[in-house]
Amino acid sequence: MAQEDVFKKIVSHCKEYGFVFPSSDIYDGLGAVYDYGQNGVELKNNIKEYWWKSMVLLHENIVGIDSAIFMHPTIWKASGHVDAFNDPLIDNRDSKKRYRADVLIEDQIAKYDEKIEKEVVKARKRFGESFDEAQYMATSPRVLETKQKRDALHERYAAAMQGPDLEALKQIIVDEEIVDPISGTKNWTDVRQFNLMFSTEMGASADGAMKVYLRPETAQGIFVNYLNVQKTGRMKIPFGIAQIGKAFRNEIVARQFIFRMREFEQMEMQFFVKPGTELDWFPKWKQTRMAWHQALGFGAENYRFHDHDKLAHYANAATDIEFRMPFGFKEVEGIHSRTNFDLSQHEKFSGKSIKYFDPQTNESYTPYVIETSIGVDRMFLSIMCHSFEEEKLENGETRTVLKLPAALAPVKLAVMPLVKKDGLPEKAREIIDNLRFHFNCQYDEKDTIGKRYRRQDAIGTPYCVTVDYDTLKDNTVTLRFRDTMEQERVDIARLNSIIEDKVSIAGLLKKLQ
């Protein structure tokens, strides 16, 4: 099945099983805005808990804050967002659709990569065990020709984005004969810049209203509070400040479901270090963050680092952690060495000193910053994409299952009475009443036991318990495992010890030690 079709099934599954709904659905929705349903909010909260505890619980020198969405408008002038927070946009005159020029070119680069990968796959099938991929890549005329085109395009794109040079971006699109996916034509306008911040007014009267912005990132709330946290928490450099919160960007080209939205949630940590040590800390945080992702068990081959060709105006090093989505490798987290740009700018624009006094060296300086920034919604989507499976069973049936990491699953245990009579529902309720304080449980008595299993598979519940007539005699139940569908008979008294460690966030955190 084509990956595009798989992705459509995942989007449909999210709505059908209460993970993600289009916002304002009864009013035909609002573009690129989504609501999380009853199962989605549980999964999302578990992701946030895993991230939060990995930061503030496992690191003595990292603490958290929760800053306001509305901030003084001068903050965004100081940070560069008012003048430089833009996307290069291009319109197709025939479809009347607008696109990000850089995304169109990046998609074209990805097509070259896919073409090379297809050649490698075909050769691997042809040569079997004797296949030497490195030698083939170095000698195949088709691969070498495609790679030459890909590298030449990448070099032109990297140079054009440094400005960015809008005319050069347009010329690349023309030279590569990139077509509009809707109209199929190459009738493009010129490329132009568009600021992404939402603005509104704050004040009781129109005359006295002040223009303010919905924050486009959560980082600035940390920067303007860093000295408050440092002094009240008696923090010594190096130390970090973590935050989870909403951000807003007026994305013109919002696409791929919840991958790019106008209202989204970020998990960011700013790590303050002594100037000159930032490039020592940068690779350490790269390794730490990659380990966090891989602890979920999705396979190292599905992750990669992508170093930036174009650095933001505030950075001296930057990389993305990319995850293999159905639509290719895409960014889920950014790691940046932000230098001292933000703190220096806020000191300049506020007119107040926010330097750190180092008691060991008896000097004051503006710290440098290593940032880790991960999109909650993109992380949610990557987990859903990897966990979604349609399995062919031995009896010819197909089951749809979400093989979510047990610690992140919305429901950890479903308890099901075999029938709705003879004391079995009461016994099932008794089990839930004993276990609900340890992890999220769900009672399910509707339909046949087989249909109930399928329903729990579809929302990713790792364990199901069936209460039958033997339960009333010997206090044992049938415990079913989601991934293998295997069943075993266990004592009710053992359920907590069997399940709790496997479904707790602590179990995931232990993998990081």
From TrEMBL:
<dbReference type="Pfam" id="PF00587">
    <property type="entry name" value="tRNA-synt_2b"/>
</dbReference>
<keyword id="KW-0067">ATP-binding</keyword>
<feature type="binding site">
    <location>
        <position position="100"/>
    </location>
    <ligand>
        <name>substrate</name>
    </ligand>
</feature>
<comment type="similarity">
    <text>Belongs to the class-II aminoacyl-tRNA synthetase family.</text>
</comment>
<feature type="binding site">
    <location>
        <begin position="264"/>
        <end position="268"/>
    </location>
    <ligand>
        <name>substrate</name>
    </ligand>
</feature>
<feature type="binding site">
    <location>
        <begin position="371"/>
        <end position="375"/>
    </location>
    <ligand>
        <name>substrate</name>
    </ligand>
</feature>
<keyword id="KW-0963">Cytoplasm</keyword>
<feature type="binding site">
    <location>
        <begin position="375"/>
        <end position="378"/>
    </location>
    <ligand>
        <name>ATP</name>
    </ligand>
</feature>
<protein>
    <recommendedName>
        <fullName>Glycine--tRNA ligase</fullName>
        <ecNumber>6.1.1.14</ecNumber>
    </recommendedName>
</protein>
<dbReference type="InterPro" id="IPR027031">
    <property type="entry name" value="Gly-tRNA_synthase/POLG2"/>
</dbReference>
<dbReference type="Pfam" id="PF03129">
    <property type="entry name" value="HGTP_anticodon"/>
</dbReference>
<feature type="binding site">
    <location>
        <begin position="259"/>
        <end position="264"/>
    </location>
    <ligand>
        <name>ATP</name>
    </ligand>
</feature>
<dbReference type="InterPro" id="IPR002314">
    <property type="entry name" value="aa-tRNA-synt_IIb"/>
</dbReference>
<feature type="domain" description="Aminoacyl-transfer RNA synthetases class-II family profile">
    <location>
        <begin position="150"/>
        <end position="417"/>
    </location>
</feature>
<comment type="subunit">
    <text>Homodimer.</text>
</comment>
<comment type="function">
    <text>Catalyzes the attachment of glycine to tRNA(Gly).</text>
</comment>
<dbReference type="InterPro" id="IPR036621">
    <property type="entry name" value="Anticodon-bd_dom_sf"/>
</dbReference>
<dbReference type="InterPro" id="IPR033731">
    <property type="entry name" value="GlyRS-like_core"/>
</dbReference>
<keyword id="KW-0648">Protein biosynthesis</keyword>
<dbReference type="InterPro" id="IPR004154">
    <property type="entry name" value="Anticodon-bd"/>
</dbReference>
<dbReference type="InterPro" id="IPR045864">
    <property type="entry name" value="aa-tRNA-synth_II/BPL/LPL"/>
</dbReference>
<dbReference type="InterPro" id="IPR002315">
    <property type="entry name" value="tRNA-synt_gly"/>
</dbReference>
<feature type="binding site">
    <location>
        <begin position="331"/>
        <end position="332"/>
    </location>
    <ligand>
        <name>ATP</name>
    </ligand>
</feature>
<dbReference type="InterPro" id="IPR006195">
    <property type="entry name" value="aa-tRNA-synth_II"/>
</dbReference>
<keyword id="KW-0436">Ligase</keyword>
<keyword id="KW-0030">Aminoacyl-tRNA synthetase</keyword>
<feature type="binding site">
    <location>
        <begin position="249"/>
        <end position="251"/>
    </location>
    <ligand>
        <name>ATP</name>
    </ligand>
</feature>
<keyword id="KW-0547">Nucleotide-binding</keyword>
<dbReference type="GO" id="GO:0004820">
    <property type="term" value="F:glycine-tRNA ligase activity"/>
</dbReference>
<dbReference type="InterPro" id="IPR022961">
    <property type="entry name" value="Gly_tRNA_ligase_bac"/>
</dbReference>
<feature type="binding site">
    <location>
        <position position="217"/>
    </location>
    <ligand>
        <name>substrate</name>
    </ligand>
</feature>
